[in-house]
Structure formats: structure tokens, C-alpha cells
Amino acid sequence: MPHNKTTTHPKFSHLPLSTSGPVECALTGSALLNNPYFNKGVAFPTDERDTFGLTGLLPANVQSLEMQCKRAYQQFCTRSDELAKNTFMTSLKEQNEVLYFKLIHDHLKEIFSIIYTPTEGDAIQNYSRLFRRAEGCFLNINDVHRVHDDIARWGNPEDIDYIVVTDGEEILGIGDQGVGGILISVAKLVLTTVCAGIHPNRTLAVVLDCGTDNEELLNDDLYLGLKQPRARGKKYDDFVDTFVQAARKSFPRAYIHFEDFGLPNARRILDRYRPEIACFNDDVQGTGCVTLAAIMAGLHVSKLKLEDMRMVVFGSGTAGTGIADQVRDAIAADSGKSKEEAAKQIWCVDKPGLLLQSHGDKLTHAQIPYARRDSEWKGKDHSNLLDVIEAVKPHVLIGTSTQPKTFTKEIVERMSSHVERPLIFPLSNPTRLHEADPKDINEWSQGKALIATGSPFPPVTFNGEEYEIAECNNSTCFPGIGLGCVLSRTKLLSDKMLVAAVKALAAKSPALKDPKKGLLPDVVDVREISVCIAKAVIEQAVEEGLNMQKYIPTGELLEEWIREQMWDPVYRPLKLVSKETASKHAKGELGSAGVD
């Protein structure tokens, strides 16, 4: 939860991202009230109302942030459905960012699904119809020559820490949403602030509009994106590269987060830029990291070593192969095996059934390492999941297929007959696409299964015992990784930094103390989890010599250093400065509020 830092921190208040003490502001009057980053509304104290020319512009009664939050929550609750609540939150964010984030903090469990999956998916599908005000940076493939200038308008080189970019092709299990994908970039950045204290006015949401293959959008008069088929090949690659180079030139210290790119491109783009810049793909690495942490906790409960585990992945797209990669790399690190040898403990199933080497060109770049020799399956049926389960006898079954109800009673019973405590993770989002209901998995396995899901579910019971269902929520992982990368100013995000993040998350598993508890910590604890993950990431970056930030402390001081630089939804005192000498931040020219 946020810390009310009203006084300057004695050790780290000199840091550029320090959150102690007053904030410089050159705006006055209505301009101040119209800036969501500085605006306090009726919470402006009397002295600031006088200093900043707000008298007569606000009701007389000065109220606290807590009272504002109470009022905002009452308004939120009156909205008729989830999408209306999502729209209300968007409107609030455009008026008062501190109040917006405070409301989320105070009601995180309830509001999380409103500002992210599944409701954000509905908002994205209706983007052009609900559109009121542009937020984020819109780049389109027909104006590649403008990309550098369009990126540069968002600030000076030191002004942006975190960029989320999407091309809108594979959004939250609902596919190609074209320019509406900007909202997934916006939503991810909201989560980085909520979960890890990334400063909201030092982030940039980007959509790469490459056209769309969504016929419904192409035929919609209100659609706001390019009305042309989605670009592919060299033209697409050149556009992505132009964006990356422009972002690096304009904001050389910024961390780039790729989000919801399509299956043909997500892994390829990540592999292209990972050796060069600090970047991350949440669908590939975030999903893999959080799932691996749940697996590690589950293996601890079942008293099984990672190097002895067998895993089947059902749905071998971006998320599925990303999970496979993280598990493979962890097996290799723990056992000393090569990555090729470790991959043999993972069986990947997709539309054609078990992935085999004979599938040849039908395999994606990410699937190739997991394709089995055809000779291994000679005379065996590999076309359906049940037969694969029967042959492999896996300890872990991962679902990333977006095919509902595919983890059948027979599959769960068969797994439970082969191993003592099967790990069964139906991870597909949104909820309507999950492979099985945890209640059914629990019943069919006679309470033996250790379960994690992609969306929140209530606890389940068996023989009078209650078992918590862990949510493999990337938000417990990717914000902390990003925070560690931002604060260390790392040159790259290495494999070892990701492993350090996974171990830090797994160490917080409630199941380590009580097997009936969830395999992963609850999202309400995410701020503290992010501190632990960021600490592990920073320490590993320093060990590998990847950090560009100097004078990073160690031990307990490192945690203090991290916390001081995490933005909190509290009203800090404002200090009036002249426009002639003010920074872009003080003039309200950073973030979406400062761009015309």
C-alpha cells in the first residue's frame, strides 16, 4: 500500500525519481485543474488554493484524498455494468491520476478485473465506439517517415522510463483489434504503476497501426485505425525497427515492453532485439515466469525435483512456448543439462496434435525446439490430448489453448492416476476460455490436483477441506521485473535476471507454509512482491555488470532505495515555480496530458 511521504528522505531524496518532498509546478488556475497529474480537486489545501490561483474555482470545503476516494467509489458502484465501470475509471484517470490510482489501491481485488482482463478486452473491442479522448502514441505504417518526430514529442531523453508497445494483433484472447490495441498498452502501464510504483507521467503507451485483418473493424464506419489489410513481411519489419530505433534515440534509458503481438511475430521480434536493448515480452516471458514460479511452488508441495518433472503444454502459441522456454531454462540451470536435453522433458500440443519434427514448415520458430522425433511416436496416437497424457504421464499440464472445457474429466482422472499430486493449470483468458473449472478439476482429481488459473476463482472444497486457487497473474511478476530494470538502468534483461525474478516470486508462495494455500501470492500483496523481485533483478544486473545506474546500495539499504523511488497515490505538496525556468514536468508537458 502507498506510503505517505511528506518529508524528504534522509538518504535518497537526491535521486531523480525520489518521491519525498514537494513537487515543482508551474501551472496555475484552470490549467492546473485540467492537468490530471497535478490536479487535487477539492483536496487542494487553502494555502495552495491561494498560491496557485484556485480561489473561486473550487467549492469551499477542503476534503481529504480519502473522502474523495469514498465519493469516487460510490460513483463507481452506481455504474450499470463492467464496461460502464471501465469507462468511468478511464474518465477519472483523465481528471485526477492520484485519485484514480488511490481508488484502485483501496479496492484492488474488485477493480482489477475492470481495468484489466476481462473487461479491458470489451473496452478494446469497442474502442472506436467509446472513443472520447486520445491517450498514448499512435504510429502508423503509412507514415514511417514521421515515427522519429512523433516519438520525440513525448519528452527529453531522460523523461521516459517505461514504454509499452503493441501492434494490436493478438489482444487478450480476442485476436486482432487494430488500433484499439492502444488500450492494452495503456492498461499494462497502469498495472506497472499500481503494482510496482512506476511513475505514471514517465511512461509511454504506443500502438503500431499496421492495418487489421478484422473484417468487422474494416467494415465499421466508426473504426479509427487504418482501413487496410494488416501489413506483413519486410514492410512490417522495417516499421517495427524504425519504432525501436526511434525509441532508443529519443529515450536511450527507457525499457521497452512488447505486448500482444501476433504469433508469427512476438517471439521473432523479442529474439531480434533482446541481445541489443533492455526489452521484454509479457506474453512470452511474463507468462513463463509467473507459471514457472507456480510450478516451483507446486513441486515443493509434491516433493518433486524440477529436473525430474514431465510437462505437457496444451496450446503452443506465444504463451505456451514462452512457458516451455522458462521451464526448460530453469531445468537446465538447476540440473546442468543442456537446453536441448531439458526440452525433452516438455511435450507441446497444438492444433495438429503433438508437435512432431515432420510438421516441418508448419512449426513456428518458437515451437521447433519442442518438436518430438516421429520415431518416438511410431504406432502411438498423438492426435489428441488424452492419448498424449496416457503416453507421457506428466506431472504438470499447462493450458494456453483458449479452447474451453478441453481438460475433461477423463484427462484429469488419467493424470491423477499416474502421479500423486498433479499440477493442472488452465491458464487461458478471459474466463470463458479456460480449459476447465477448478471446482471440477478438484472433484475429478479427488482433491489431489494443485491448481493455478489464468483468472481469479474462488476456493474449492473436498472432504470438508478448503483449497485456495492460485491465479497465474502476470501482474505479480512483470511490474517488479520492469521496476528492477528501470532503477538499475540495465543494458539488457538477461536470462539470469529473469530466473532471479522467478525465484523471488516463488519464495513468496503461501503454499510453502500451508499446502492448502495458493501456489502464488495474492495480487493484493503485489507492491511488496515487486520490491522483492526488483531487488533480485537489480542484484543480478549488478553481478553481470549490466547496470548503468551508479552507486546502487546493497542489502537492506537496497530495499529502502527501491521504495523511495516507487510512485505512490498520495498528494504531495506543490511548489510554485516560474514557467521560464520550469522543467517540462513542472509545466505539465510530460505524459499524455502534456501532448496536443
From TrEMBL:
<dbReference type="GO" id="GO:0051287">
    <property type="term" value="F:NAD binding"/>
</dbReference>
<keyword id="KW-0520">NAD</keyword>
<dbReference type="GO" id="GO:0006108">
    <property type="term" value="P:malate metabolic process"/>
</dbReference>
<keyword id="KW-0560">Oxidoreductase</keyword>
<dbReference type="InterPro" id="IPR015884">
    <property type="entry name" value="Malic_enzyme_CS"/>
</dbReference>
<feature type="domain" description="Malic enzyme NAD-binding">
    <location>
        <begin position="284"/>
        <end position="542"/>
    </location>
</feature>
<dbReference type="GO" id="GO:0005829">
    <property type="term" value="C:cytosol"/>
</dbReference>
<dbReference type="InterPro" id="IPR012301">
    <property type="entry name" value="Malic_N_dom"/>
</dbReference>
<feature type="active site" description="Proton acceptor">
    <location>
        <position position="188"/>
    </location>
</feature>
<dbReference type="InterPro" id="IPR046346">
    <property type="entry name" value="Aminoacid_DH-like_N_sf"/>
</dbReference>
<feature type="binding site">
    <location>
        <position position="473"/>
    </location>
    <ligand>
        <name>(S)-malate</name>
    </ligand>
</feature>
<dbReference type="GO" id="GO:0046872">
    <property type="term" value="F:metal ion binding"/>
</dbReference>
<dbReference type="InterPro" id="IPR037062">
    <property type="entry name" value="Malic_N_dom_sf"/>
</dbReference>
<feature type="binding site">
    <location>
        <position position="429"/>
    </location>
    <ligand>
        <name>(S)-malate</name>
    </ligand>
</feature>
<feature type="binding site">
    <location>
        <position position="283"/>
    </location>
    <ligand>
        <name>a divalent metal cation</name>
    </ligand>
</feature>
<dbReference type="GO" id="GO:0004471">
    <property type="term" value="F:malate dehydrogenase (decarboxylating) (NAD+) activity"/>
</dbReference>
<protein>
    <recommendedName>
        <fullName>Malic enzyme</fullName>
    </recommendedName>
</protein>
<dbReference type="Pfam" id="PF03949">
    <property type="entry name" value="Malic_M"/>
</dbReference>
<dbReference type="InterPro" id="IPR036291">
    <property type="entry name" value="NAD(P)-bd_dom_sf"/>
</dbReference>
<dbReference type="InterPro" id="IPR012302">
    <property type="entry name" value="Malic_NAD-bd"/>
</dbReference>
<feature type="binding site">
    <location>
        <position position="259"/>
    </location>
    <ligand>
        <name>a divalent metal cation</name>
    </ligand>
</feature>
<feature type="domain" description="Malic enzyme N-terminal">
    <location>
        <begin position="93"/>
        <end position="274"/>
    </location>
</feature>
<dbReference type="Pfam" id="PF00390">
    <property type="entry name" value="malic"/>
</dbReference>
<keyword id="KW-0479">Metal-binding</keyword>
<feature type="binding site">
    <location>
        <position position="260"/>
    </location>
    <ligand>
        <name>a divalent metal cation</name>
    </ligand>
</feature>
<dbReference type="GO" id="GO:0005739">
    <property type="term" value="C:mitochondrion"/>
</dbReference>
<dbReference type="InterPro" id="IPR001891">
    <property type="entry name" value="Malic_OxRdtase"/>
</dbReference>
<feature type="active site" description="Proton donor">
    <location>
        <position position="116"/>
    </location>
</feature>
<comment type="similarity">
    <text>Belongs to the malic enzymes family.</text>
</comment>
